[in-house]
Amino acid sequence: MEEMRLYEYQAEVVQPALDGRNIIIWLPTGGGKTRAAVYVAKRHLESTREAKVAVLVNKVHLVDQHFSKEFHPFLGSEYKVVPISGESAEKDFFSVVVKSSDVIICTAQILENALKSTEEEKHVKLTDFTLLIIDECHHTQKETVYNKIMGPYVEQKLTGEKNLPQVLGLTASLGTGGAKTFDGAKKHILQVCANLDASAIMSPKNHAMELQQRVPRPVKIYDIVQERLKDPFGDHVKWMMQEIHEFMDLKDVFNGFGTQEYEANVVLLEKKGVEQRNRQLAQCARHLRYYNNALLINDSVRMVDALNVLDDFYSNEKIKRIGLDATDWFLFGLFEENQTELKVLAGMTQHENPKLAQLESTLLQQFGSQAGSRGILFTKTRVSTRCLYDWILANRALQDASIKAAVLTGAGNQISHMTQNEQKQTIRRFHEGHLNLLISTSVAEEGLDNPACNLVVRYGLLTNEIAMQQASGRARAENSVYSVVASKGGREIQREKTNEYLEELTQRAIHEVQQMNPRHFQQQMGEIQKETMITQRMAGLQMRQKQNRHDPASVTLSCRTCYIAVAHGSDIQLIDDTHYINVNPTFKKYYRAGGQVHLEKSFKDWNPGRRISCAACGVEWGMEIIYKNVILPNLAIKKFALVTKDRTTTVKKWKDVPFPIQEFSYTDYCLTNFPDL
After folding, report:
1. What 3 state SS string does 16-65 have?
2. What whole-number distance in Å separates Cα of residue 24 and Cα of residue 29?
3. Which range is most confident: 2-6, 378-382, 472-476?
């Protein structure tokens, strides 16, 4: 086992935790928060009877990173340290693993699932642990999974539970929670402290100079780009959008084509169209969203990438859609009539996005001048990561500079997501130097540690002060550069400057909290915790009232695209708190089954089946799942409208439907539908 040694500033901040107190360790990215947590865990295991440590992370790739780089090297020879992520078989018997292990490193979602589970081999209680280490603990707020774990913790504490685990939170930035004032920032920080039941926020005082010397910040550069002088491709897309506005007879509803505000407006417009059963309004708004997305892509990457988004959308629509009406013919016709013109305009390289030229210069300046450079290029969406990757591959100058790039995006069950194994392999290749540039969404902002990384580029991003600080902290090497590539006078620059102010505001507010009288601090913690508990109970009561507003049999589910009624709320049942399936055998006549869905990971009780779509209009509804050899249609609620006697509504998630949903009974279903059993 490697010897555990802390720097003086680390030893200073961990002291209250060694005394058994709940604290938050606030150190900058690269300051060794995780190493300090390992030290606390080691001392806790040595001194606590029947000690059991849970290390919670919010990103899948951090499970392996914390296990292999920190906890296992220092604790593995004396204690059983087990990593568990979504693809680990151990998650299916989590309780058994907990009982036989000393340290469990897992995503917070796995622990929350286990706390809620009624299955003996999965279920655990908070009191089964003696120490909870919460990485990136600034996320312990609102409806996050961290807060879903700590909410019951605080409630149990307030109702007299004595055997709750010690809590150690780790963060580089608590943020302001959206507040723009000092009082608002302080209130937010106190709320996070209360959510974590923390008695103090610890940062170095006596050894602050040592921290500054060991964790230098990268040089920040604003790589400003002059606006594109001419944008004939974007102008033509905007003209087409105006044509759709006139077709809807909504000439002056809103403008601002190519902005996030416009996207928010058309999302609401589509929802309004569905609720009014105005198909022209709903479908035009839906198509406008794709045009607006193309403009956003045109503003960040190549014109051809923007065109490809529209090409892919209309190609897929043509394949899937049937039963077209006048609105469909207009929308399809508009694109087909202008497709050739758009292709010609997208090929006019003299009008290409100037941000790309600046990005090329930024990359070449670092990779061309320093052998062994490594960097992370942060961008907003999965689509833009892929577009930037394609651009780098096609760019001769960047290839001559030996840039070896790869995409890193979030893991999940969706086909567009990376698998956890793909994430792990990409990060490993980056650490080993086989790759020297990651093109990433926010998934790499927190916790991705690579001491050789000397360049971070934020490209076309509008995010908060926490994301800014976390991204900056990925540049760990000496003489690192943190570049913001953005248009002159653009919103990205304004947001970055605002974030710098908010970062300074956060620091002032934290220092104010640290100076509070301990008795007054604890008094405020108690008041905030009681108020939060009442607020959460009220929210739960309102949610239950909402979910019981209608009898399930009185709610009709209709296709969101063609409005054909296809099911009732009473047809929907829930499997494993995950799959919302239609148990009515007559539902089969309303959908068509398409191609097989392939997912990289396997599951305990089910496998993916075929895609399913509306038999009347062809829009996709979800997929079949094969659950214990029974084929069941698994539906996405965002593809349906909910019709009651007084109104039509839409919801994004099943938890928001206004009727209760019954748990699926495999036995009852089989006995009812397979009489020969």
Report:
1. HHHCCCCEEEECCCCCCHHHHHHHHHHHHHHHCCCCCEEEEECCHHHHHH
2. 14
3. 378-382
Rg (CA), the chain: 27
Task: Write down the mean pLDDT value for the chain.
Answer: 92
Q: What are phi and psi of 627, to 5 degrees?
A: -105, 110
Please state the three-class secondary structure of 155-198 as a single string.
Answer: HHHHCCCCCCCEEEEEECCCCCCCCCCHHHHHHHHHHHHHHCCC
Selected from 1.10.8.60, 3.30.450.180, 3.40.50.300, 3.40.630.30, the CATH number assigned to the domain covering 219-227+353-500 reads: 3.40.50.300
What 3-state class would DSSP assign to 633? strand
Contact (Cβ atoms closer than 8 angstroms) between residue 560 and residue 618: no
Residues 457, 463, 468, 469: is their CA dihedral positive or negative? Answer: negative
Using CA atoms, how far apart are residues 148 and 150, in angstroms rounded to an integer?
A: 6
Q: Give the residue among 649, 620, 648, 647 at the shortest CA–CA distance from 636.
A: 620
Query: Among candidates 54, 114, 182, which has minimal Cα distance to 509?
Result: 182
Kindly state which CATH superfamily the domain 552-673 is placed in. Answer: RIG-I-like receptor, C-terminal regulatory domain (2.170.150.30)
DSSP conformation class of 597:
P
620-627 sheet: strands from edge to edge: 591-596, 606-614, 620-627, 630-635, 579-582, 572-575, 662-663
DSSP codes joined into one string, 90-101:
GGGGHHHHHHH-
For residue 39, give both structure tokens. 């030290």
3-state secondary structure 322-370: CCCCHHHHHHHHHHHHHHHHHHHHHCCHHHCCHHHHHHHHHHHHHHHHC
Residue bearing the bigger pLDDT, 442 or 425: 425
Alpha helices by DSSP H, listed for 448-548, are 465-472, 491-514, 518-547
Nearest to 490 by CA among 665, 656, 259: 259
Q: Report whether CATH 1.20.1320.30 matches the domain 232-349.
A: yes
Among 79-93, 243-257, 372-386, 420-434, whose mean pLDDT is lowest? 243-257
pLDDT digits (tens, 9 = 90+) for 312-355: 999 999 888 888 899 999 999 999 999 999 999 999 999 999 99
φ/ψ (deg, to 5) at 368: -80, -25
Length of the chain: 677
Global pTM value: 0.89
